[in-house]
Each structure stands twice: as C-alpha cells, then as structure tokens.
Design goal:
By secondary structure, the protein is mainly α. The chain folds into two domains: 105 residues, no CATH class; 64 residues, Winged helix-like DNA-binding domain superfamily/Winged helix DNA-binding domain (Arc Repressor Mutant, subunit A, Orthogonal Bundle). 64% of the residues lie in helices and 9% in strands. The chain contains eight helices and three strands, in the order ααααβααββαα. A three-stranded antiparallel beta sheet has the order 1-3-2. Helix 3 runs antiparallel to helix 7 and helix 5 packs across helix 6.
Length: 188
C-alpha cells in the first residue's frame, strides 16, 4: 500500500492528491539521485518548507506588534511564568541561552516599549526582577491570537481527522528525535 492509499483510507484525502512544487523537485532529482528514498525526501522537504513559511508568517505577525522573535520569547516566558509574571534577568537569559549583555539590551527595548518593568528583587536588594506589564500581557495575548487565526486558515485545508492523524505522525517523529537526543519531555 502506498502512503497516499494509506492516507486516503484513514483520512478525507482524495485518491489522486494535488501536486505541489516538492513533487516536481523530486521528479527532477530522481535521474541524478536514483537511490534516495523519495517518501523520506518528500516528508523532510515539506516539513522544512512549511517551517520556513510558518516562521515567515510569525515574523510578519510579530512585526505588526512591533516585536521580533526575541522580544516575543521574553514576554512569552514571563506570561507563562504565571502570576505575578516575574523572573530575574539571569533566569530569562539562561532560558533563552543569551549572554547577560544581550538580555540587558533586550530588556531595555521591552521596558522602553512599556511591555516589561524592572523592580527591586524583594529577595536580594542588589538585584532586580523583570515583570510583565499589563500592556505586555495584552500584547502577548493579541499576538498569539492573531497568529492562531493565521495558522487556523492554513490548517483549514485539513479535516479534523486529518489534523489528528498529522499530529499523531509528527508526534512520533518528534519523540524519536527526543529519544535520540536523550531529551524526553523536552520543550523547545
């Protein structure tokens, strides 16, 4: 059974799928690289292409709110920390694998934009904590909402069953990567 026949059996997919540019690319390289597993190449090329397009979409969304991906990660980390939506600059820098200088510059920009504020650390007078402002929280929530709407438009090409199947298959691939990296339950 081919992968298309398998998917057609378990999903609402036509027997003759629509072709994309990856199909043309794979046909073009087949004479030059006849020993490749073209199912694997198709999977990897499609995931890579979708990843680039989704990242571009996210960058456009962030730009609409005057953010870049680094800014978004900081306000996201503070938002996910839960009330009182605080962290130390050092913890944020470690979480994002940034130098303290880079984190300081990022926090300066975010503070100037009114998205975070620095407060004296109640546990250590020599330190500060970074707190997400109400404006920062609202900006984060709006950004997530706008991006989620865009992602829903793209994924509307799939039925509910297809989405569940795709999630299941991608999860299996992710678990295999995590197993090989020795990073079970790792969150990127």
């Amino acid at each position: 059974m081919t992968s298309n026949e398998f998917l057609a059996e378990f999903a609402d997919m036509p027997k003759e799928p629509v072709r994309d540019h990856i199909d043309s690319f794979l046909e073009a390289i087949r004479p030059v690289l006849p020993d490749l597993d073209y199912e694997v190449e198709g999977i990897v090329d499609r995931i890579s292409g979708l990843s680039r397009r989704l990242q571009r979409m996210m960058d456009e969304t962030l730009s609409e709110f005057g953010l870049d991906s680094g800014d978004y990660k900081v306000i996201g980390a503070l938002s996910q920390a839960g009330p009182p939506f605080r962290s130390t600059p050092g913890r944020l820098a470690r979480r994002m694998e940034l130098s303290s200088g880079t984190m300081t510059n990022r926090l300066d920009r975010l503070e100037s934009a009114g998205l975070v504020r620095r407060l004296p650390d109640p546990a250590d007078r020599r330190s500060v904590v970074v707190e997400l402002t109400e404006h920062g929280s609202e900006t984060y929530q709006k950004t997530v909402g706008v991006q989620a709407e865009k992602e829903a438009l793209v994924t509307s090409a799939l039925s509910a069953r297809e989405k569940a199947l795709l999630n299941s298959l991608l999860r299996k691939m992710m678990v295999e990567f995590e197993r090989r990296e020795g990073r079970a339950d790792h969150c990127d």
